[in-house]
Amino acid sequence: MVKFYQPCEQRFANLETLKVSTCKSIEYVFDFQVLENASEETKLFSSLKDLELIMLPKMTSIWKGGSQFLNFDNLKRINLEHCLKLVRLFSPDLLQSLGCLGKMEISYCSNLEEIFEMKDTSMASPTLGNLTYMSVSYCNKLKNLFSPSIVNSLVKLKTLKLSHCSTIEYIVTNEDGEKGALTEKIMFPSLYDMELEDMESLTCFYSGVIAIEFSALKRLMICQCPKMKTFGYGNQVTPKLNKVYLRNVRCRILAPMDRAAEAIYEFKYVILGGGVSAGYAAREFVKQGVKQGELAIISKEAVAPYERPTLSKEYLLREKPARLPDFYVCVGSGGERLLLDWYTEKGIELILSTGIVQVNLVYKALVSAYGQVFRYQTLIIATGSTPLRLTDLGVQGTDAKNIFYLKEINDADELVKAVKAKKNRKAVIVGGGYIGLEVSAALRINNLDVTMVYPEQWCMPRLFTAGIGTFYEGYYANKGIKIIKGTVAARFTIDSNGDVKEVTLKDGRVLEADIVFVDAGARPLTSLFGGQVEEEKGGIKTDAFFRTSVPNVYAVGDVATFPLKLCNEMRRVEHVEHAYKSAEQAVKAIKASEEGKTIEEYDYLPYFFSRSFDLSWKFYGSNVGKRLLVRDNGPGSEKHKFGTFWIEKGKIVGAFLMNGTSRENEAIANVARGQPPVDYLDVLKKELGFPSKEKDR
């Protein structure tokens, strides 16, 4: 420690550089107490340009005594490192003599509470007009950095870097009673580059609702700031911003900013797709201990993941229709309903209304239609499938209004709107799949005149036997639904308003139509990954853990072609249960790989179900081999309860049950998985309450 007596004034008059390093017992660098009676004209260090204090672990203050004798008019650089007990740096009176300060670096000052002290409102405004570079890191007691009056003096600040300051809540905060604190706008006219990294408590740039103008800002990096929900509560003017790099933060923080910039976001895990798989994968990530800010879900829809099967069922009902938030995932499997607040609470970034237009699996980057770049360490592809369009099949007039497909909630909303507008009018359903059957029932319940058209000999031929198909057609006819088989739609006639008017079939028949719903099948959404990943049977090829041919890239749900262990073949499955089970399996595999553990291979039991009118059926297993029908399946019967079983190589390999109880459905699931000998059928029929006779159907 240097003690200053009045004769020392001359000795230090021309000192330009002062460096003090690795002095473990120093509590003060300078002791000015002996100068208490010195004249007011006494000023020290007026020539000092460079001050560097490193590894002074016991230093509580740079000087002891009054700072009125200090003059830093020529100080250009200050560097403080590992001054662990330093509490405050610049008092209000010293702020007036920092006009030449150009560069400030402070790190590992773990007890530092204030850099610029501005509590004395009688003092003149601070002078920091030449500060161009400021870096502060590992200062874990700082609450904020600037007050508005400090900001007003930072006219040349070009670079601001803050990292690992765990207690900073705001970069700029009003001080009580400070003059000019409640201004309408603050400005950083020269700030070009800003980095905010690993700031655990940072919630916002400025504590007040105010506009902030960053006239020169071109690059912004925000990483590991889990509590930062928005960059500012007022408008942020950033006319030159062209590069934003975000890692493990909420993308909504950019909402108040100009969006012309190219934004780069980085997450440890990214789920591409916002359907059922995404919601269940998120829940499994939380079970596996994902940290806040590590996981993002990118979805082109505007809502959180929901149970998609509801759209063709309860959503279309006339009375007490289902609406969000009632069917957010994971209620479909009997689990907790994951509301938007759940994702926020768990630190999961939901990036909604964002379509991805380009994927580069080599560089681990996804590019949105807005130009945002999302980087990941591990990617789960959960893009699902999309309905086949009649345009792709050469049908004419498909640009008519009131022709509907069903994939997302927006599609369902448009269909509901049309149904309400076309009460008691005519609807034509093109296609006889299970979505077409469910929508037909819903429209009939809404009192529309419904006609189904499909080319097959019976409905849902990929699963239904002729006997099941015949039952359905008879049942639907009894409900007033007309069915035309063996032909397809060839063209649509459009009226003067642009609405569909007629459907002309390939066999020449013409059907009046106010609404057309199309169920022509679906195709997996894999085009973004073409040529980058191995594909098979129309999907992305995976193993039993849903790993693709590209390291750290997984594919789940509709897009995955995976080894179906039960049937010993590669298969792609479009069903909600597989969507969520495959997602859960992939997450378990990801976490197991990180921890050097193993998990069991995916062993999926094929499963389909449907509900329409008072019919509810479930199917498990494989629909190959000889088919046996038990119990009468006549559409005019009262109970409509029957079963069909598939026999292959002397074993029961598949089971279909109409209107079974939960216990009975569980029984046929166990049979399909266990594949017992055909003799077990007698036991099963008794358990299901069926007579012993059976038919080959």
List keywords for this structure.
FAD/NAD(P)-binding domain; single chain; 46 strands; 16-stranded mixed sheet; elongated; disordered N terminus; 5 domains; 697 residues; alpha/beta; 6-stranded antiparallel sheet; 15% helix
Describe the protein's architecture and organization:
By secondary structure, the chain is an alpha/beta fold. It folds into 5 domains: 1-86, no CATH class; 119-260; 268-385 and 541-594, FAD/NAD(P)-binding domain; 390-520, 3-Layer(bba) Sandwich (FAD/NAD(P)-binding domain); 614-696, FAD/NAD-linked reductase, C-terminal dimerisation domain (Enolase-like, domain 1), CATH 3.30.390.30. It is built from 10 helices and 46 strands. The strands form 10 sheets. It has a 16-stranded mixed beta sheet that branches. Strands 41-42-45-44-43-46 form a 6-stranded antiparallel beta sheet. Strands 27-34-28-29-30 form a 5-stranded parallel beta sheet, with helices on one face. A hairpin with a 2-residue loop joins strand 44 (642-648) and strand 45.
